[in-house]
Write a structure and sequence with these properties.
- The chain is built from 8 helices and 5 strands, in the order H-H-H-H-E-H-E-H-E-E-E-H-H.
- With about 200 residues, it is of the alpha+beta class.
- The chain has 2 domains: about 60 residues; about 130 residues, Beta Polymerase, domain 2, CATH 3.30.460.
- It has a 5-stranded mixed beta sheet.
- Helix 1 crosses helix 2 and helix 1 packs across helix 3.
- The protein starts with a helix and ends with a helix.
Amino acid sequence: METLKSEISAVAARLVVEEGLEYGPAKRRAVKHMGLPLRTAVPGNDEIEDAVVEYLSVFCADTQPGELLALRRLALVWMERMAAFRPYLGGAVWHGTATRLSDIYIQLFCDDSKSAEISLIDHQVDYVPRTVSGFNGAAVEALSVHAFCPDLKEDVGVHLLVYDRDDVRGALKPDAKGRPPRGDLVAVRRLLHDQRHD
């Protein structure tokens, strides 16, 4: 059983890195690719993340660090733009597994859920509003933007997920590996500083 899960993890990791899929769709596609029954027990996200880290170290060690740096720089630009809404960076860009195919996920913790949207309208930013499942399982509004990344010379998806201000308390509980699941402006600036000096 564990062998099968590690095989699914390896296939899903390749899909995450090479096609930019999120973990859930990558797991479902891996099961389908491998011709397994739909009800096959799939590995958890931590196992997929470990497989992604391994895949990156074997196949992308020369390109991925620069792509990650470019995405973190762009994330910082958007976090500074949206600083009034207490932005936190999450996902692969925060955890260090992002490649040029990864989108940027920034959580905003607002007093008024419409204020972030109004700010984008005021700055004439084109965005697509949609509803997604948030980190606490509840539906949240996502404001999705195509942002040009100068370092990668291409557009990147930036998703601003709008939460209530009080949700920030639950947002900072360490994940299963004991890491902070997201970081604020100070933390992202520190990441960039550390990455540039590695």
